[in-house]
Amino acid sequence: MDEIKNIALVAHDNCKQELVEWVDFNWGSLLEHRLICTGTTGRLVEEALTAHLSSDNEVNARVTRLKSGPLGGDQQLGALIAEGRIDVLIFFWDPMQPQAHDVDIRALLRIAVLYNIPTACDRSTADFLISSPLIKQKYTPIRRDYSSYLSRTV
Fold this sequence. Notes:
By secondary structure, this protein is an alpha/beta fold. The protein has one domain (6-150): Methylglyoxal synthase-like domain (Rossmann fold). Helix content is 45%, strand content 13%. It has a 5-stranded parallel beta sheet with strand order 3-2-1-4-5, with helices on both faces. The mean pLDDT is 89.
């Protein structure tokens, strides 16, 4: 990971306002990095950042928006993680509300763990991640060796 991280931001409907408040509080730190968001979350993040920047173009250059989660955005994000193009995942998910695309959500969290991506699923953990000195430094995460798993025969 370089000093400038690729930070994915995702939030379920009941958690979007909390994520927007978190982005508004941490906008200075977040703008030092590249942000990748799913659908509506991306639009809300852009709106929150616009209040702190001089132009919409400046925000658009810093935020990449994927599809909405239920329309494949979670899977797009998982693919980016597998390709090594996401460094940090901030995913405010709602543990009290069943999601129609729950399988996609579990797959996204699984792939983040599989590739050893720092992941925050709540505001406190997100605060610790964004305030860690490692967020501004080069960092090489230890990747688990799956070669024996891949070479096994059934």
